[in-house]
Amino acid sequence: MANFNYQDIREAAYESNMQLPKLGLVLFTFGNVSVVDRAKGVFAIKPSGVPYEKLSPENMVIVDFEGDTIEGDMRPSSDTKTHAVLYKHWENIGGIVHTHSTYATAWAQSQRDIPIFGTTHADHLTTDIPCAPPMADHMIKGNYEYETGFQILNHFKDHGLDYREVEMILVGNHAPFTWGKTAEKAVYNSAVLETVAQMALLTEQINPNAPRLKDSLIKKHFERKHGPDSYYGQQ
Amino acid sequence: MANFNYQDIREAAYESNMQLPKLGLVLFTFGNVSVVDRAKGVFAIKPSGVPYEKLSPENMVIVDFEGDTIEGDMRPSSDTKTHAVLYKHWENIGGIVHTHSTYATAWAQSQRDIPIFGTTHADHLTTDIPCAPPMADHMIKGNYEYETGFQILNHFKDHGLDYREVEMILVGNHAPFTWGKTAEKAVYNSAVLETVAQMALLTEQINPNAPRLKDSLIKKHFERKHGPDSYYGQQ
Amino acid sequence: MANFNYQDIREAAYESNMQLPKLGLVLFTFGNVSVVDRAKGVFAIKPSGVPYEKLSPENMVIVDFEGDTIEGDMRPSSDTKTHAVLYKHWENIGGIVHTHSTYATAWAQSQRDIPIFGTTHADHLTTDIPCAPPMADHMIKGNYEYETGFQILNHFKDHGLDYREVEMILVGNHAPFTWGKTAEKAVYNSAVLETVAQMALLTEQINPNAPRLKDSLIKKHFERKHGPDSYYGQQ
Amino acid sequence: MANFNYQDIREAAYESNMQLPKLGLVLFTFGNVSVVDRAKGVFAIKPSGVPYEKLSPENMVIVDFEGDTIEGDMRPSSDTKTHAVLYKHWENIGGIVHTHSTYATAWAQSQRDIPIFGTTHADHLTTDIPCAPPMADHMIKGNYEYETGFQILNHFKDHGLDYREVEMILVGNHAPFTWGKTAEKAVYNSAVLETVAQMALLTEQINPNAPRLKDSLIKKHFERKHGPDSYYGQQ
User: Domain Class II aldolase/adducin N-terminal spans what residues (chains A, B, C, D) (predicted)?
Assistant: First the structure.
């Protein structure tokens, strides 16, 4: 047994990665969760291409915000640089999740924002779920995963979105990324996104002219859970 | 261990709440069941935002028909006032369930009644499953969950529906509520609603001109189960 | 413990009924299987409205071909007379299954035959899966379940179908019935029907002009499994 | 206990066959996996029509590249000759899988290639997933399963596809075949195909004009996993 540092984020990353198959969000190795340690400027992330049943806290890889491995014998997830860019620029997030969950990925492939149709959506965010366009060719041919991070950052900037309020995005033609103050919250957001994505598709199938949720309901439901006078959950 | 009263409804509420994840009707904490004690004028309901695996009879919250907590250290479900209004005005119901189950919620988001297409539906009610419109802005901005209860009561009144015969409703843009003489029946109704909602969507996809069930079949199937000469189930 | 007769068909009916929830074909008590004893002129069938987890060989009800109970303290399934009519007129069937499985029921509600689109279907039957029209009002108002049996018999007669080759039907606005030489085969047919029903819907969604399977393939696949020179399975 | 040879491929075939029900790719006996031993010129394949729970390494059937049984008391899968033809002509494959998985089969029934809509697809192959047309009547009436193998070979030849890069095909009106360097990889490909097939259908439902993935992204994602500079997974 080697003597590993970063035990807290290793264990948190391991626990959160193991939630993905339990929640039905991943097939085989399609997905990864990371957990950051802001004080040390590193995050723990799933090793690349390793089946969930072979994961352990010990084989999580420790990476810095440039995407360089600090500790670990295995290669980190191929999406590591996307995580690194987000941690570097968004200082309030504690965990990031990437999956190819079925319905969210179908929306990403459709290159459409997910319209806000109901309170299940409004309990979590007040806008449509954004879908960033596919990247420009020069970004793809270059440092692809690094540029994916900037595609996300720029989409938020260009559309006036705040990553502390909208904790999820679809990358066009690719798949979703979610985040949160903790990895646990980021995983929760991935499951919520998948459910909301399925409900939105079904809603359009039942009524192709279904209206978006009206502003008063958006505001009410979000404030129930998130406003200064929130009254959902325990204090 | 504190010394709790209302043990019967605590246990019944706990058992019924635990049925929701088993029946696939809830993700995380999206749902709640309550059980009333008519003699004491109170009901037991799930605490707000607590995961199902942490529920126990002891942490169910006891609330009166004004929605005020009578016993319990935790906040009751954020939907508590909706339950309170229904118990107060509909004296024959013993339990209420609220979920965001996928297909029923998609119909609610579509703001359409679920058409009665077959006997699976008619075995349980003889009308389309009603969808109340989204509430007026002043109701939303005010005492929202309390007004949700009145939105349901008024929709039944305006459409001549009897809550003893139609034990479920969709609240437009939101999600379903179901009820019954017991919480067990209300949970059963939630699962039936989800299945009927899925079948109705599939029916329209297979045949966009599918006709509603004819009156003679509606009558027959409902009376098999519910009429004075019912012959379904044991005596 | 009472001293029961008909132990063989009781146990076979019990075992086959218990397959329905395992195969995902029923919710709560929506479904029933019966097994016939031709020599004694009776069949064993699920009691009405009893949850699957409370079934036992002992509480199966023994009924004759007129639908009258021969042995058993409980009411037989409300669909018992339909089973009785089919056993009486179709002497080569050993078991019957009725479910409200989701996709098959959606086709029944759509009042459409399920087109033969592929070899999964052709491995089991060479025609579209028939959907009998909803019954005439006088049949519904009269001895409904008895008439349901005749609706099935007459649809087969009118369309030149042979119940030994086509072991399933959709009853319009209602749900499927399947049968077979044994109850095990009838249960198998219910699961095959549900899968074929789902595939057919998806096929039309992917290609609204998808052609029906051509005759040479229909013939080949059915004969692989069922013809005099069949070579599927063990001898 | 008989004294069996070919123990390695028996065990590998058994293990891979048992993965199919675990991955939700088969109902009852609908599916089969084979594993080849190139040195001995034989492969091990599932016996025909035997339920998965009764499989064992011992009842796998050993067959040569003409489709003749070399060892085993049971009949091999009715699709054995298709496997034999592929092994004979494609010398780099180590395992073959045939299933009737729901979404892939629906695409096969629709007689459409599955468009490449996203990176989930591009991580595995750079082209649409090919759908071979239904066979000509004389091929069906003749040595059907043998000709199915040639239908696959010819479709690849006619469309300039390389079986080492495109490890899956839909046979029109029938169902998918997948392969790989190992049976484990072939099973993996079957599960990937089913997921990609579902995502592609959902994508078209969300956006009927969804564009195919652009070339730069196709190239990037495939090379991440498969090119000379691949950086997915461990070395």
Answer: 11-201
